[in-house]
Write a structure and sequence with these properties.
Radius of gyration: 23 Å
Shape: globular
Largest sheet: 2 strands, antiparallel
Order of helices and strands: EEHEE
Number of strands: 4
Helix content: under 10%
Strand order of the largest sheet: 1-2
Structural class: mainly beta
Number of helices: 1
Strand content: 15-25%
Length: about 120
């Protein structure tokens, strides 16, 4: 016991039995995400190119490619806006729309709980 002092000892793993007759998992071909406006498949932008914009439209997560951001002056018109600060930088997390600017979660009260006396 003296030699193990100060060292982390990993507990033994518990393994479950696997049968060779088990069906292999089914891998579904999910559609590759693309630009909400033009359908362009996602890609890593070059250093000189704008980044893809992550936003929300009707409560669904969408991406807007750098080309559409440059070529379409009205590209942000269709995006949802934060009810609290008006920003378009929204993410959909576990079904909730969350503002990445101020942290507001859609469907919650705009007025902070501490100011209402609750």
């Amino acid at each position: 016991m003296g030699a193990d002092r100060g060292r982390f000892v990993r507990p033994m793993a518990i393994l479950s039995a696997v049968s060779s007759t088990d069906e292999p998992p089914v891998v579904l071909d999910a559609p590759r995400p693309g630009c909400f406006l033009c359908g362009r498949p996602t890609s890593d932008p070059s250093r000189r190119e704008r980044a893809w914009v992550q936003a929300s439209v009707a409560g669904h997560q969408v991406l807007v490619c750098p080309r559409c951001q440059e070529e379409r002056p009205d590209w942000a018109v269709q995006l949802d806006r934060c009810e609290s600060c008006g920003a378009t930088r929204l993410s959909v997390v576990l079904g909730e729309v969350v503002c990445r600017e101020c942290g507001f979660v859609r469907g919650t009260s705009v007025e902070p709980a501490w100011s209402s006396g609750a």
